[in-house]
Target: Diphthine methyl ester synthase
Amino acid sequence: MLHLVGLGLADEKDITVRGLEIVKKAERVYLEAYTAILLVDKVKLEAFYGRPVIEADRELVESGSDDILAGADKTDIAFLVVGDPFGATTHTDLVLRARELGIQTNVVPNASIMSGIGCTGLQLYNFGQTVSMVFFLENWKPSSFYDRVRENVQIGLHTLVLLDIKVKEQSMENLARGRRIFEPPRYMTVAQCASQMLETEEERKEGVYGPDSLAVGAARVGAPDQKMVVGTLKELCEVDMGEPLHSLVLLGRRTHDLERDFIRQYAVNEATFDASYAKYYGASS
Ligand SMILES: C[S@@+](CC[C@H](N)C(=O)[O-])C[C@H]1O[C@@H](n2cnc3c(N)ncnc32)[C@H](O)[C@@H]1O
Model:
């Protein structure tokens, strides 16, 4: 059987009892290592699980899935995914491939950033569509996220923005020369995200949000040193939230008083928070 096991958000101890039992008995254990990272390294996982863990990069999962599935008709293979296996990560293609090969599948859920973000004090009921922010390049600044943010803003809902991760990336030169040399991993910060959002607004000029719009930055959700900050997008461009992973929530207009009181506790500056809030937020419809 192919088991997709959610690892939760922070460290080796966030796996569920059911997940750990599967890891201990599986023939091979893969760790999906490109859509999110745990806040501890592989060695720590292996020590806690008492099993060797094979890192599965995008290439292996997307082009070499038959290697992962080899033998899974007779024995158990565990495929570990940070967060929840189906939370903002789609491994449905791997499940479909397994089914095509007549391999049974089993999913062990866990906490996801999609629910963990509730730690900000913002109600999950009040979120609209989730969007992703990719690292902009000189001549490639995709802004499709902006249209979805607009739809959320129009109905007053919060927008969860998930931030880009680049692992096992090759420079253009190494790629062109076919050299398998990889750049160090990169994780987008809340400050970079806020700045790219403002750059997009300046480009599109549709007034979906602006420098005074409020947003919440959340870093290392679920870890003992999780950090949250609320401020205007302009303020968040300067904020240092420390180690990855980071997410950002653009505040919706229909913020409830309880949500406001909760997030105000971690305002970069209470005066600018109050001024912006009084101007743009708290509408009941
Ligand atoms: C593609 S999503 C993968 C989600 C994962 N499967 C889950 O269920 O949580 C990865 C993005 O979610 C956000 N993220 C994941 N874990 C996080 C954490 N502990 N704290 C803050 N943001 C997190 C980051 O923006 C990261 O780049």
User: Anything to note?
Assistant: The chain has two domains: 2-111, 114-281. The domain at 2-111 is CATH 3.40.1010.10 (Cobalt-precorrin-4 Transmethylase; domain 1). The two ends are 49 Å apart (CA to CA). The CA atoms of residues 123 and 259 lie 7 Å apart.
